[in-house]
Amino acid sequence: MLAEIKGLNEECGVFGIWGHPSAAEITYYGLHSLQHRGQEGAGMVVTDGEILKGLKGEGLVTEVFTSDAIKDVKGKAAIGHVRYATAGGGGYENVQPLLFHSQNGSLALAHNGNLVNANALKHQLETQGSIFQTSSDTEVLAHLIKRSGFTLMQDRLKNALTMLKGAYAFLVMTETEMMVALDPHGLRPLSIGKLADAYIVASETCALDIVGAEFVRDVLPGELVIFDDEGMRSEMFSYNTTKAMCTMEYIYFSRPDSNINGVNVHTARKNLGKRLAFEAPIEADVVTGVPDSSISAAIGYAEAAGIPYEMGLIKNRYVGRTFIQPSQSLREQGVKMKLSPVRGVVEGKRVIMVDDSIVRGTTSKRIVRMLKEAGATEVHVVISSAPIQNPCFYGIDTSSREELIASKHSVEEIRQLIEADSLTFLSVEGMVEAIGRQEEGETRGSCLACFTGKYPTEIYPDMLLASCGAGPFF
Amino acid sequence: MLAEIKGLNEECGVFGIWGHPSAAEITYYGLHSLQHRGQEGAGMVVTDGEILKGLKGEGLVTEVFTSDAIKDVKGKAAIGHVRYATAGGGGYENVQPLLFHSQNGSLALAHNGNLVNANALKHQLETQGSIFQTSSDTEVLAHLIKRSGFTLMQDRLKNALTMLKGAYAFLVMTETEMMVALDPHGLRPLSIGKLADAYIVASETCALDIVGAEFVRDVLPGELVIFDDEGMRSEMFSYNTTKAMCTMEYIYFSRPDSNINGVNVHTARKNLGKRLAFEAPIEADVVTGVPDSSISAAIGYAEAAGIPYEMGLIKNRYVGRTFIQPSQSLREQGVKMKLSPVRGVVEGKRVIMVDDSIVRGTTSKRIVRMLKEAGATEVHVVISSAPIQNPCFYGIDTSSREELIASKHSVEEIRQLIEADSLTFLSVEGMVEAIGRQEEGETRGSCLACFTGKYPTEIYPDMLLASCGAGPFF
Amino acid sequence: MLAEIKGLNEECGVFGIWGHPSAAEITYYGLHSLQHRGQEGAGMVVTDGEILKGLKGEGLVTEVFTSDAIKDVKGKAAIGHVRYATAGGGGYENVQPLLFHSQNGSLALAHNGNLVNANALKHQLETQGSIFQTSSDTEVLAHLIKRSGFTLMQDRLKNALTMLKGAYAFLVMTETEMMVALDPHGLRPLSIGKLADAYIVASETCALDIVGAEFVRDVLPGELVIFDDEGMRSEMFSYNTTKAMCTMEYIYFSRPDSNINGVNVHTARKNLGKRLAFEAPIEADVVTGVPDSSISAAIGYAEAAGIPYEMGLIKNRYVGRTFIQPSQSLREQGVKMKLSPVRGVVEGKRVIMVDDSIVRGTTSKRIVRMLKEAGATEVHVVISSAPIQNPCFYGIDTSSREELIASKHSVEEIRQLIEADSLTFLSVEGMVEAIGRQEEGETRGSCLACFTGKYPTEIYPDMLLASCGAGPFF
Amino acid sequence: MLAEIKGLNEECGVFGIWGHPSAAEITYYGLHSLQHRGQEGAGMVVTDGEILKGLKGEGLVTEVFTSDAIKDVKGKAAIGHVRYATAGGGGYENVQPLLFHSQNGSLALAHNGNLVNANALKHQLETQGSIFQTSSDTEVLAHLIKRSGFTLMQDRLKNALTMLKGAYAFLVMTETEMMVALDPHGLRPLSIGKLADAYIVASETCALDIVGAEFVRDVLPGELVIFDDEGMRSEMFSYNTTKAMCTMEYIYFSRPDSNINGVNVHTARKNLGKRLAFEAPIEADVVTGVPDSSISAAIGYAEAAGIPYEMGLIKNRYVGRTFIQPSQSLREQGVKMKLSPVRGVVEGKRVIMVDDSIVRGTTSKRIVRMLKEAGATEVHVVISSAPIQNPCFYGIDTSSREELIASKHSVEEIRQLIEADSLTFLSVEGMVEAIGRQEEGETRGSCLACFTGKYPTEIYPDMLLASCGAGPFF
């Protein structure tokens, strides 16, 4: 549902726990707090030490996991997943964790991110006789593990990981251990927590908080962490690492109560808003934010600019897969979908509308119009990120370069297209400083590829072509 | 689900439309925007001018109304209802609108409010041979209409309304007309809008906005408005009227984008927060609000006090009827339910926590503890309403006087019970002024009964007894 | 689903039990064995002596009663119902038992049969101010009970029953007793059984057998039997009684393993077939029956005639509400629905096809064609009942006289219409003798109205008019 | 559900169609008529010539295929499957057809039968790096096809088939062709039909009849038949063939209206009954059969012996996955499950009870007791097959030799165990002659392995061990 508003979607959140008698229930609450990362499907695989049992389906966490179903998968450890389905990749089969049984034991896999050499590897594996059951790039890892010559699962996994390029936070579970791995650039967030004697890993720290776990530390780029009945141990599967955490995690994806690499998301957003007030001082009557992700930035802007923050836009909640979309004719008659303007707040006012990003521009245009129809005399759009000019190959669904309005238009052109009275983007430097990471270097440990075009990994030709609208390479 | 947090629930929202070919779809979107007023059940009755067809069920609007089902109830007019089920009153039968077929035609009824003489009337009607199908007080009106000696439906309805005491916004529909009536004290909100040639009535103006309708005016206390193919006409069924709009609509129930009797709810709340900052200046590092209903007041407080507003508490969304409640044992281990503290924001800080009201005090205590466990050094609770010391008989589910903490304890006692460093309620005068209604008189057109004990209607003994914990009177 | 094949449907089966800790489960099995009497809806009301709890829905017994739901309605007594929905009378509301709560206690009602003066009574009750929730005639009894001046429930019920005309087997339950009543002509079957200390009543004895109960006796026409914690007691509410059991119970409706008024249904059918072989000796190669209801008669015919019985037609099972009906175009291409011919059995053969009755003739025609297309050289249709020339007003859905082929055509005309090589009906005398009831008199205790036009009760003008295709009288 | 009664279950029925615009709908009706071959799951894969779309689920055909879902899979060709789930092999994943997508195209597989070297092949394939998604032996074929060195799908399939041992009727579909293959011994039935220009294949001819198709011929052992837009063509993938059709297809599995290798099933069963009357003449009052599969044999016995056939046992229908099994305590109180005796028919009678086979003997014992409790004075059990003394490895679920009562006990011992007054099995010669196949040789083209222990294929050690109760071999 976010897709419609943003045209910007991350694929997935992951959660795992080892060593707790209520592993399945805790995974349920953990996944629930990660629901914002994917609403199309949810699943978990639970082990009691003997067998692996899976439970998954399309829909929200509360739809997929019924009370009865959860009781059926009791165990001491579990990994879980919430999924945002990219185009063409839907269906029950693609809901994760993937679960594989073989005569040597079982294997469950959950993945957040995107592999840039998945097609190349898949092509090679199929040529060698492998059959893929899903259209997800995640399955590639299973086949690489299966074909590895090593004996120990841990070695097979390390061996397989070295062949992957791209962004990944992987959770792997067998009957006797849970292993988590983060790509050598640390493109996706992954944190470790502790709840009594149990260890937890999760895409965001909010999932640790919600289940009452203590934060231990973040998984390092290139690190493989193994949890079993002996506890936790770690080794590096790659030493050629950098820190390149996806900046959009701060700006858009993560929950405001999460800390990503030590920085609280709400605070980062508020600082982005403050910085924006500094970079783009505007005379106006009210500041408003596009809910939910831009509220913190809007409050920051208002505070720094000394202009009252008001709730000028409201989001309609309770929207899920079963929500009936208004017909074109009803939309033309004015039936609203996800956002409504608050006439009582914006009527007759000069409005500063804070949003976190512009992807295709269609949503911004709709909101500006909405505010003007509700009586705003001026609408100044301020964006708490720099223009997104390059496609993401690491799990963010900005399909193709074609669709990125900022890749083809100047700021002034965009302003005209979205019909705003003024339009300001935050500078790249402003973003980096406002987020305030402690790391060294120009990017301060962030991936800025979508803004700057400097990708931390090599990029495969099939992805580049696809990003220009070409068909599949293989 | 709000019940758990507040112990304070309104029963229902209503929506009606006459004269639109997409009446059922529009009612769907209207009810969807009123979902916050009741999540236990939803229903609509649609007419094509010939017959009345009903569609209802337990659950959310998006659960009850499937795409296929909506197609089945095409018509030119519809009334709809979202329901919060009070204890003992659940079940399919009690979901509204109620629909009655007789050999003379059909009748549909939707009701927001509570009748104070329902039991007395029901007892009398049963003695005369009537059989009640539901346990809702709404059905009383149907029986009174049926037994009225008048011929015209409009006269039968007026005749019946004169026998009712209490709070009600009624929508009544037959094959040929839609009638809406508001009790003589105007205790419940009810607004009229226009969408092309169609008329709309709704509990809140947000439902008019969402479907693109223009606000026409509010229904008056004691007014009966009739909509049919000729248009809209009105008459008073009572001239002995006052204005006593439920104050909690501003403070807690309504959506921030609604205007209640001409006052925007978000603005009212922000003003309540500002007034609170004036009445209760506190030295602190951050201001935070309990989501969702107290955010506006918190921002108002922060603005007025010059203390930064921060997101110190976050609400877990996607919670519906199917959400699995954590077991006692998991709660004790720290699994959160609806609210989580944001450690990154409150740790090491003196926190002002703005909430809209205190009913039983259990939630406040839980939140204070949560914030302290997350590292807050001080937690100052400020409440944007006066203490609730008296039960409501008009549709707010504050069960019994017993459970109202402020009816038995002083402010200092409550402070100790909720373990806050300080506790401040807003004064009654402060509330009235901050809301800023234009009406004359001490209450400025609001019902303040739950704060002051001055009830605008007579109160029946069975309700008083029940409010003290006694059983049913009849 | 039988409707399509026969155009002849009974409305409902009833089951009740008093005094067993597993009352709900036993009712489930009892209703399941009565499923052939109604597949559109099922329900039960259970009491634990304190309250009445209902559980009902549209669909089959196994669809409506889930394992969880049954656990929710534990109690010591229950009444249940399976329903065949007549046109216009569908919907959740009309599924029985009906359950009424009042300030004096609760009342549940289940009904098999049809009242001939329901409309007249309903009209009168509505004029007096009653509101009907359902379109079923059953609700009339509830209102009559409610309006009765007597104090004891038992007296109120007797008082109400004296106002009813028509066919009824009623089960009535309150918190403290279960009462069953059979109309003064005994038009519907109702038997009493005993299971340990519990008493059971059921439409057919097969329901007693299935739950392991012993048969005690049949309920008498005009009898009211009361079951409570003291046991069973009986009184007559009418002494003006006759015996007029619906003949179609033997011929078509009941399960072959049931005994109706002491006569086993399979045996009666086999005797009908034997008698038919005697009345209509035909030279042929094989005898076949239309499943399921005509198999016994076909075997009887084959045995008496010395011609081999073969399975020339087969029924497609697993057909329920969710079965997708083949489109007209697929039917024309030969897609079968409920019956298939067995080519291997009928090809090149002269076939005697035994059926139990002809209502509209469309099914017979389809089957004759089917057999001929499968290679039968001759098809002789023999019917184990007399021609149905008159509508039923007692609960059998033979809509209107118009549709009864035998009311407008001679046997020879019907033969031509159904394209059979010969057609024989059983004589009325033959039917009566073959069924072999022990009672005295011409009809031997059976209602033969649909064959002879001699109705055991008075008939109201609105029903007569309706049976000629006229609209509702009131 | 048959499992409980018989302890004897076949796994699956298959249906395929090429070249019809309503391919999906026709497959629905075809599978529906094969429902008796498997009630645990159903699925179909449809192609429009461009892509393959699958639709499957656990439950009955009418539960899995909703009207909306069928509309979603329009196409010109389809293959479908109904499944009986063996122990440990349940779950959504194992429901067929299996559907595999690869970068070279898609492949769908449906299978009836059982491979005796599946484990050996699976072990080998896993060692080579293949990952199996299901626990079904069917998937082995997909991997063999994938790993074949040939280019043409047809050659890859032939290449793969030569590696399989056991019983199989395979349906394989790609975007451009449907291929069907029968094992070299013809252990499973598979027939070809024609409906206008479309070709159909089905496990039984009843599925051809139900959709209005004409029977063309049976698929030959070792034959590969290919259907595409050019029509039908055939080639042999093995010339080392025999005819060894499973005898239990005649005796128990198939629908009476099907012809298996040219012999009508009902007729075969009736002849088995007649032969039994000749081999085992018994003095008795009535003959009855265990429904549904033994009715034809019982009628044959009755006809030949001149003793009346009566319906002494009745089956409770409408039983599906959701049926609530009676608790042990209710069963002890006499609650019946699938069969009820008809007291009115058997009381005081000497009963000949015809059944088709005895597997574990527990059901026979229960039925004998049931009949005696219902008043039968003598119960003579006659079985229309020879004693089953050997396990089946070709798809019939007779678990292990341990459970076959006839492998450990003499006929007299069995008689005592089942508490019958006499017990007669048909002789092997009697079976062969009664079925009356035209083929030459001792077995007349039938597999008699479960009676004689002479298996038509080689048998792998892991299966032999499993049949003695040992665990998995690999």
From TrEMBL, chains A, B, C, D:
Q: Mind telling me which CDD domains this protein's record contains? A: GPATase_N (cd00715), PRTases_typeI (cd06223)
Any one Gene Ontology BP term:
'de novo' IMP biosynthetic process
What residue stretches are annotated with the Glutamine amidotransferase type-2 domain? 12-230
Cofactor descriptive note? Binds 1 Mg(2+) ion per subunit.
Q: Does the keyword Membrane apply?
A: no
| Alphabetic keyword roster | 4Fe-4S, Glutamine amidotransferase, Glycosyltransferase, Iron, Iron-sulfur, Magnesium, Metal-binding, Purine biosynthesis, Transferase
Fetch the Pfam families from UniProt: GATase_6 (PF13522), Pribosyltran (PF00156)
Q: Which family does it belong to?
A: In the C-terminal section; belongs to the purine/pyrimidine phosphoribosyltransferase family.
Task: Outline what the protein does.
Answer: Catalyzes the formation of phosphoribosylamine from phosphoribosylpyrophosphate (PRPP) and glutamine.
What protein name does the entry list?
Amidophosphoribosyltransferase
